[in-house]
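REQUEST FORM: STRUCTURE PREDICTION
Request ID: SP-0412
Submitted by: Lab K.M.
Chain count: 1
Length (residues): 566
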Amino acid sequence: MRISLLSWLSLIPVCSLFLSFLVFAVSGQCLGKQQSLLLDLKSSIKFNSTLATKLVYWNESTDCCSWEGVTCSEGRIVGLNLDSESIYGGLDNSSSLFCLQYLQNLRLASNNFNHSRIPPEFGNLTNLSYLNLSNSGFSSPVPTQISRLTRLVTLDLSTLLSISSLSLESLDFATLVQNLSHLTKLYLYGVFISAPGIEWCKALSSSLPNLRVLSMSYCFLSRPFHSSLKKLQSLSVIHLNNNRFYVTIPEFFEDFTNLSSLKLNSSRLIGTLPRKILQVPTLQLLDLSKNELNGPLPKFHPNGALQSLLLSKTKFLGTLPTSIGNLKRLSKLDLSGCNFNGSIPISMENLTHLVHLNMSFNNFSGPVPSFIMAKNLTEINLSNNNLTGQITFNYWKELQSLVNLDLRYNSLEGSIPMSLFSLPLFQKLQFSYNPFPGQLPEFFNISSYQLDTLDLISNNLEGPIPMSIFELRGLQNLLLSSNNFSGSWQLNAFQQFRNLSNLGLSHNSLLIECNGANSSSFPKIESLGLASSKLNTVPDFLRNQSNLVILDPSDNQILGEIPNWV
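STATUS: Completed
RESULT:
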């Protein structure tokens, strides 16, 4: 009997539904024994049910393959994600977890196993390709059985030193990695290894040919680097910061052609920077801060991919190469606390993706360049340099994302650009110790009610403090000391600043009066500078200032007895 084409077409939805059911039955429905193992696991561990988001919903009435944190294949559990489940206490060696023989992906990160040891039974889960026990409160030692997990692609045993301490102890580093030839990502942040470079470098290069991510910060590694490491040509991430190398950066680091992230900060490195390290075209993050590195910076790649360049608290010196303007993708630049000098290259105006800029505590001179093309800038810190010249609003008017501007301890002059206060996200203006002259204009067109710090200490400002300053209602720090401001002020006027904690009015030509200051409604002050303010009495509002740490009423005209409440 022949069936019409129309009849066949009508059967397609039914067949599709049936096939979908079969797929679910094969790959989605949890096998009974697998579900029992998970329920046994739930009953055997302790967790905070008010904070947990997965375990609390595991129950017999629903299929375990539908449970949050569980991944199945053909009814077998292949993935278990219990990260941040507020698990606490130990993990028993006989836990049903170690009977989940099909597990390929296991995540127990960010829990609190209360300094218990990592059970050696983890070595039974031989199908694991991903194991993450990071920041889970396990303590020493790492069991030798971890080396049995020969299918591992990712291993993360990282630990915050404040949470617990892991070490290899009886398991040396070479033994840990000798069978893990498939490993591409190794995270051992905070694990006490304490091996010299010739050992850990050779172990990595001989056992992990496919390694792409190497994170061994805070591992107490020591000198020197060994050249065998350069065999790992797939490496894209090298994080070896906070170790104790006492050596120069090896030149073979230039040869990692896939390198995207290099962190060697706080590792007691010495000497000059390899000439081509800044020429690696794939490098996106370079952190060499807090080392004894010295000498001038070499040239940057003409099409550099760097997004973060962190060189703070080193001994780099000389002028910045103009090629720094090639880093068109740079979003974070920290050169603070170095020995750079000369002018800030005008080519930096090309860094249109900058978000954070810190070049403080150097010897830069000359004018402040314009950053108006960097429309995403949130922080500019050029303090403690020798910068000169005037700054105008044209430098900042396009910086609608600007939050902090710190130009302290320079030799800048001219008018303070009041239009800065129209920037909507602006929070901190720090211009102290510059020779800005003249009067402080009125604060008009204020958009940033988030401004919490106005620091104009030790300028050459004079005349009255504008009354419109009280429009800056979010101020926490108002620092106007050591200028030539004049006029009289009632202290109770500052009650309008409800969040004020630091007020500095010392060493001006002000007459400060404290009549009628309501002691109960005055904001909680931590630091109050009223020196040389012609005060004739101790302000009564101080009786309720329980947070006060610093008080300077020196060089005034206060007479009579000191109040009992002082």
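NOTES: The CA atoms of residues 411 and 434 lie 5 Å apart.
Reviewed by: T.R.
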